[in-house]
Design goal:
The complex is a heterodimer of chains A (311) and B (323). Chain A has a single domain, classed as Orthogonal Bundle (MetI-like fold). In chain A, 66% of the residues lie in helices and 0% in strands. In chain A, helix 5 packs across helix 7. The longest helix of chain A is centred in the middle third of the chain and has 36 residues. Chain A is globular, with a radius of gyration of 25 Å. The C terminus of chain A is likely disordered. Chain B is flat, with a radius of gyration of 24 Å. The mean pLDDT of chain B is 79. Classes of the chains: A mainly alpha (311), B mainly alpha (323).
Chain lengths: 311, 323
């Protein structure tokens, strides 16, 4: 609609032919309007994804390959030029470990988040449709689970099951699915009461069909934003657990345990600040990804909260 | 009964119920252990009689509900059981009680947490209120951008950045001991408490700002401005009385958050607190100690959240009439 009042005609506006743009075109328009922070976030995420997928091809050495000299400093700080970021405490190439760490840390966080959405989303939808004792039971159970801080709960469960990657994924996915359950249930509850859902039910559609075809498409935007937030939360939890020595176990490379391994000389940082680099580098890798995801989610939430004007 | 009282009592009851459920969950964790864990704790060479005696000591020959009653009764009297560590396969028992392990570390953690809160709460309230008043100014934007970044950083990253920046000024290892004076202790915990301050100031400041901005948009504030009241008067007389509830909730909520964040920060700075004890007990699979720590963390978290709820109810009359 034109802003200046002089050329405005109601007839003109009514007669305007509004073509619905294609999906790709709409996405492109939305992207063009994205702020710098969102672009920055998306580019960073793309770079991380690229590193994670093609890691073995990018890495100069093998994941657990050991070289002669341990604790070598960065190449630009006078170390061996073959090792860009030096070597770690048992002589593995830090640059290689960093690249493999992208694959392991991000991959495990992604699987965990997907699993938690599968559990939490499905149960949340069921609870929203079937508001009976089942809803009550699930909601109360989730209340109790959420009243324990999740890092503490995860620590306690890991003490029992031991820290292997499958138990790590399962424990965090279950604990995190409580948040997904809450959100899915509350947004789906608003959609379930709509007339078109009732129409579908009267047509005799089954519960799975109603869930997938009527409700899910209408609650997608908040769920997608939540996926980003939950991913960065899960990613941080796994990195923190690995940092505490209870997450991903060696020799698998991951950023959390690299921070931990790099921190052995931390009490001497006062005399030579470069001693902090082995911890700062992987910690920075974790921080950069979470910041990027937060920027993108921030923009996405802003865009989907009723401020869109493209069609 | 006055509606405030009944709502508060309802919340308290709900909180107690949650605590009860949480205690059941924490208790049943020991029942989930694999059957041969007596062997694991005591070592491969343990005699069958020793293992049997160990199982009896844990009460594994009794039904679960009876064990729970025994356990919770002991916990309520301050007895959290006996640590798994210090037991030898020969049957010699040099293990210590869990409470003995936890007590000195609990006071260390409480010291760190309360010192952090003492700095962080006034600072974040000041930043939040001033940012809300100077909305969209450069000051507001820079505070906002800074807090958004510190919020998304993991605690250990912030900790290492601070170490690099301030290692010359403050010690990077917070190895406090009991015979230290107050000032020496504060000097030792400067970096860990600064790390946690950065994290929770960001949360609290953003929530305070959001609550105040919401409030400043309401019609009665506009009314007060239109009738010519000064800016300070509008804030102090009209806005703040209604803002206390959300702000109090924000503070209690973040103190609860402090309880969790303390684990990672304690490990970074090797601070002898309960978080580090829990991590150590988890990696050595010393389950009674892990249970004791989890119980303390969970109870603190639940009680602080309960406190936030109660303050919210008592100070906000609108919450009394839920739809």
């Amino acid at each position: 609609m034109s802003e200046d009042g002089q050329n405005y005609s109601a007839a003109g506006e009514v007669a305007q032919v509004k073509l619905r743009r294609g999906r790709g075109e709409r996405t492109w328009i939305a992207l063009k309007k994205a702020p710098v922070s969102a672009w920055f976030g998306m580019i960073v995420i793309a770079l991380y994804a690229f590193t994670a997928i093609f890691g073995p091809m990018l890495a100069p050495y093998g994941e657990a390959e050991i070289f002669a000299k341990a604790d070598e400093p960065w190449a630009m700080l006078g170390g061996n030029p073959d090792h860009l970021f030096g070597t770690d405490q048992i002589g593995r190439d830090v640059f290689t470990r960093l690249i493999y760490g992208a694959r392991n840390t991000i991959g495990i966080a992604l699987i965990t988040t997907l699993l938690s959405f599968l559990i939490g989303g499905a149960l949340g939808l069921v609870a929203a449709i079937n508001r009976s004792w089942l809803d009550q039971l699930l909601s109360r159970a989730v209340d109790v689970l959420m009243s324990i801080p999740s890092l503490i709960f995860a620590l306690m469960l890991l003490s029992i099951f031991g820290s292997s990657i499958p138990s790590l994924i399962l424990i965090i996915a279950v604990l995190d699915s409580t948040r997904v359950f809450r959100l899915t249930r509350s947004v789906a509850a608003n959609v379930v009461v709509m007339d078109y859902v009732e129409a579908a039910r009267l047509r005799g559609e089954g519960m799975a069909w109603v869930m997938r075809k009527e409700i899910l498409p209408n609650i997608m935007p908040p769920l997608v934003a939540e996926f980003g937030l939950r991913f960065s939360f899960v990613f941080l939890t796994i990195a923190s657990l690995s940092f505490l020595g209870l997450g991903i176990q060696p020799p698998t490379a991951d950023w959390g345990s690299m921070v931990r391994d790099g921190s052995r000389f931390i009490q001497f940082v006062a005399y030579d600040w470069t001693l902090a680099l082995p911890s700062l580098l992987p910690a920075g890798a974790v921080a950069l990804l979470t910041v990027a995801v937060n920027f993108v989610v921030d923009w996405f939430l802003h865009k989907t909260s009723g401020l869109r004007d493209d069609h | 009964m006055h509606p405030v009282v009944s709502t508060v009592l309802q919340r308290l009851g709900l909180g107690l119920l949650t605590l009860f459920m949480v205690s059941i969950i924490i208790f049943s964790s020991i029942a989930l252990l694999p059957g041969d864990f007596g062997q694991q704790v005591l070592g491969q060479t343990a005699l069958p009689e020793t293992v049997e005696a160990f199982r009896r000591e844990l009460g594994l020959d009794k039904p679960a509900w009876l064990r729970y009653i025994d356990w919770i009764a002991a916990v309520l009297q301050g007895d959290l059981g006996t640590s798994f560590s210090g037991r030898a396969s020969s049957g010699a028992d040099e293990s210590r009680s869990v409470w003995e392990l936890i007590a000195p570390r609990l006071s260390n953690t409480l010291f760190l947490a309360s010192f952090t809160a003492l700095i962080a709460v006034p600072l974040s309230l000041f930043l939040g209120i001033t940012a809300a008043l100077k909305r969209n100014s450069i000051y507001d934007r820079s505070v906002n951008a800074m807090t958004l970044t510190t919020i998304s950083f993991p605690e250990f990253f912030l900790a290492y950045v601070l170490i690099v920046a301030l290692a010359g000024t403050f010690p990077t290892l917070s190895n406090v001991t009991n015979d230290m004076g107050l000032w020496e202790r504060i000097y030792k915990i400067a970096l860990p408490s600064l790390t946690m301050t950065l994290v929770i100031v960001a949360h609290m400041m953003r929530m305070t700002r959001a609550a105040l901005i919401n409030l400043l948009a309401s019609p009665y504030i506009e009314m007060a401005q239109l009738k010519g009241a000064s800016r300070g008067r509008v804030i102090i007389k009209h806005a703040l009385p209604n803002a206390w509830a959300p702000i109090a909730t924000v503070i209690a909520f973040n103190l609860a958050y402090l309880v969790v964040g303390v684990v990672v920060v304690e490990v970074v700075f090797v601070y002898p607190g309960i978080g580090q004890l829990m991590v150590d007990s988890v990696s050595s699979r010393d389950i009674p100690v892990a249970q004791g720590c989890a119980l303390i963390f969970a109870a603190t978290y639940i009680l602080l959240n309960l406190l936030a709820d109660v303050i919210g109810i008592v100070t906000n009359p609108r919450l009394l009439h839920p739809r």
